[in-house]
Design goal:
Arc Repressor Mutant, subunit A, 24% strand, 270 residues, Rossmann fold, six-stranded mixed sheet, three-stranded antiparallel sheet, 2 domains
């Protein structure tokens, strides 16, 4: 049986939520498989590190070095550090307490604030203290309503017993890896189009290529994608678009673009 392809990935996961919901205890349970009954008050931010092996497809596994960021639950502090705390995060966990309704609705502020900095990253809604079902203060419908706004999967966990804690972290790690592969593929497609356009125009020199010629050569490329790419190349000073009326143009490579083809081309010429 062939050995799987192994890739390495550094990942940042940020937890957020009100003080006392159990963020620190969840991390401690996941990283150390320990639980401490006394309240673990986080001052500022705390970073824990863990190594995971995350499968991707049938023949690839990712060795993930995950840094888990734990933030103090006071919202005033959150506003002070959110740029640093959320920047570069590839996954987010919004944590609430099954016995505190306010902690659930507070995520309507925590999560958007995080997404403003982190961008389009996967979010999980974690309901902690499932072992205290008899003290439940929030319904499943209420949890679902909050989660749907962020397309967030819901996991009911218990830091005290360990129930589903590993499952929640591992599921999010898998989604972070899948997202990274999809982004790589999208960048490769985008980069491939960029390099192909530059190489085609470099061959034509000062004559350039008219719009219909470009589409004939790059048959199958979406019009909007090509138009957007040409706009980006023009913005970078690599291409000049000479317009003939409102809808036709000739694309001509610039000296800077010619230099870029020598430096950046990554595809095999057909």
């Amino acid at each position: 049986m062939p050995m799987p392809t192994v890739r390495r990935m550094k990942a940042k996961l940020a937890l957020m939520g009100e003080g006392g919901v159990g963020k620190t205890s969840l991390i401690r349970r996941f990283v150390l498989n320990e639980y401490q009954d006394t309240y673990l008050h986080t001052v500022g931010t705390r970073v824990s590190k863990v190594e995971l092996t995350v499968p991707h497809g049938a023949d690839t596994e990712v060795q993930m070095d995950m840094s888990i960021f734990d933030i103090m639950g006071q919202r005033g502090f959150k506003d002070l550090v959110r740029e640093t705390y959320y920047h570069g995060a590839q996954g987010l966990m919004g944590v609430c307490d099954l016995t505190r309704k306010d902690s659930l609705y507070a995520l309507n502020e925590w999560i958007p604030s995080a997404l403003e900095i982190a961008g389009d990253v996967p979010v999980y809604l974690i309901v902690n203290k499932r072992d205290l079902e008899e003290r439940r203060a929030i319904s499943e419908d209420e949890v679902r309503h909050v989660a749907e706004a962020f397309a967030a999967p819901i996991v009911y966990v218990s830091a005290r017993t360990g129930a589903l804690v590993d499952d929640a972290f591992n599921a999010l790690a898998i989604e972070m890896v899948d997202r990274a592969f999809r982004q790589d593929a999208a960048r490769a497609v985008e980069r491939g189009l960029r390099d192909k356009v530059l190489l085609l125009l470099d061959k034509r020199g000062s004559i350039g290529l008219k719009k219909n010629q470009l589409f004939e050569i790059l048959r199958g490329v979406n019009f909007d994608d090509l138009q957007s790419e040409l706009g980006r190349l023009e913005g970078e000073g690599l291409v000049t678009l000479l317009w003939h009326g409102a809808s036709d143009f000739t694309a001509v490579i610039t000296p800077r673009g010619t230099a870029a083809t020598k430096r950046e081309s990554t595809w095999d010429e057909e």
